[in-house]
Amino acid sequence: MKTILGLDIGGTKILGVLYDLDGKELAREKKKTKANEGLEVVMSQIYKVIDALKSFEDAQILAIGAGVPGIVDDNGTVAFSPNIPFRDFTLGKKLSERYEVPVYVGNDVNVAMYGEYKHLDSRASKHVLGIFIGTGVGGAIIIDGKLYTGQGSAGEFGHMVVSADGAYCGCGAQGCLEAYASKTAIQKYILKQLTKGRKSMFSDLLEEDGAVLKSSSIRKAYDAHDELAKEVVDRLARYMGIAVGSLVNLYHPEMMIIGGGITEALGDLLLEKIISESRQHAMPGLMETVNFTVSELADEAGVFGAYQLAQNML
Amino acid sequence: MKTILGLDIGGTKILGVLYDLDGKELAREKKKTKANEGLEVVMSQIYKVIDALKSFEDAQILAIGAGVPGIVDDNGTVAFSPNIPFRDFTLGKKLSERYEVPVYVGNDVNVAMYGEYKHLDSRASKHVLGIFIGTGVGGAIIIDGKLYTGQGSAGEFGHMVVSADGAYCGCGAQGCLEAYASKTAIQKYILKQLTKGRKSMFSDLLEEDGAVLKSSSIRKAYDAHDELAKEVVDRLARYMGIAVGSLVNLYHPEMMIIGGGITEALGDLLLEKIISESRQHAMPGLMETVNFTVSELADEAGVFGAYQLAQNML
């Protein structure tokens, strides 16, 4: 049977899904990345995932797609990954030689948002932006139906300045969107407010969730009319709205997909607030021409986008 | 002789240039736009320019290109122009029917920056951004060697937010780049400083120049070590640098062209300052991969871009 393999290579786990040529899932396999055990161990974990799926019935793999955190060039070389020991590593070439099939490797957020695009609406819209709120803030640019990466790093929406002289960002710069709208920035803001002595459900929720606040906890506190939760959501919408309004002026796309765990947990409630703030910044008449939607695939977006990008190579 | 006609339709004048198929200028014609006399007068002025050039020797016009201030869609319909009485006006169709040739109509800044791109480096670079400092701040996006306009209005770099809660912009929004880096914003800043009682050459220069300060006057004051001029140039470079750094993160282009009268008057002196500020905002490693250059064609960019875009239709 002719199949295509999608891989989502993350900092903690590797997910592989085998699809038939119509995009139907046939099998899946998950392994730990073991990133701290070095490059060779990581590669052997990737091979194990692929080999397990290859043995599925009479699967003949025609192409492989993969998303990886970090900077990836057009040839599938990973210049740098923040979580995995890839440094100028020719991942695409390695996989292609080993399995003798065409291989697509892209940045994980690019690949996942491309998956959302293909899932949501790839026929009606050709110019689409995806913006993703995770630990950081990332994005993807789709132009004429194709993923645009410029010289490799395009779509870093988290690192557009929204506030000159503003908050410091993990990248070293000042005023980046990511310093306001990432999960990391949100948690930092909540902790600061709690330290100041503000009363909020987040005290208990943070204890329950452990080191990292869950997206669902933000929703829970918001639904319980927690005042700090309302402030956090409004603040997130504010800065996201500034960015989204600017992006509408920059790209005038047909559709914008807002993705990530927090977005999916808050859904239309957050989307409406973001749209409302964007109207303050988009040029007259433009907002009405753009469709806004929340992502739907959650953790499945990566493998599905990888499958789609692999299929494009055939 | 086979020719192509480029038109630059401005708020005060219409410039037409006739080119041969190798881009050599054969003849030019200029008329007042007479925008305040209404649509029919404007159209008759445009026809006069074209007809005058059409009568050049044995010119056979194969295609017409035109740049117009305002919002233009893919079909050459001008949705709105701030200076000319075009409202949902099918300019492209009108010209195409009258002269029986293919006609390209685009936004004036888009068209001019495309002209700069073709003039400067259209072979080496495929992904290029042009950012233009004029009365406002505009831009153009070139992807895969083609002008990208999204749904019509892409490239409005003047209306990306650089400062949340910042200065009010003519568009109604707050914190737009245009509110800091346009000629209008610069003149406003200078007037405010003079009103505060600051001593500067700009007092005399403004009187000499009349209502609008000339770009050459900014250069003159800067070269004379005028303190306010230095401040104005540094402030311009600061906000342009924030925008340019963000744009590098968003598009990761191969080249960025900084254009407009002020840019051409200040040249590399301004460009170096902008690049230096951009480094504070672009992600690590990206600035080194982008070529920065100042525009070169000045007022000729519009007709030349129009010619190039018309030629693409053949």
TrEMBL record, chains A, B:
Protein origin, superkingdom: Bacteria
Organism of provenance: Fusibacter bizertensis
Pfam family, one: ROK
Protein family membership: Belongs to the ROK (NagC/XylR) family.
SUPFAM superfamilies: Actin-like ATPase domain
Record's protein name: ROK family protein
UniProt-listed InterPro entries: ATPase_NBD (IPR043129), ROK (IPR000600), ROK_cs (IPR049874)
Coiled-coil stretches: none
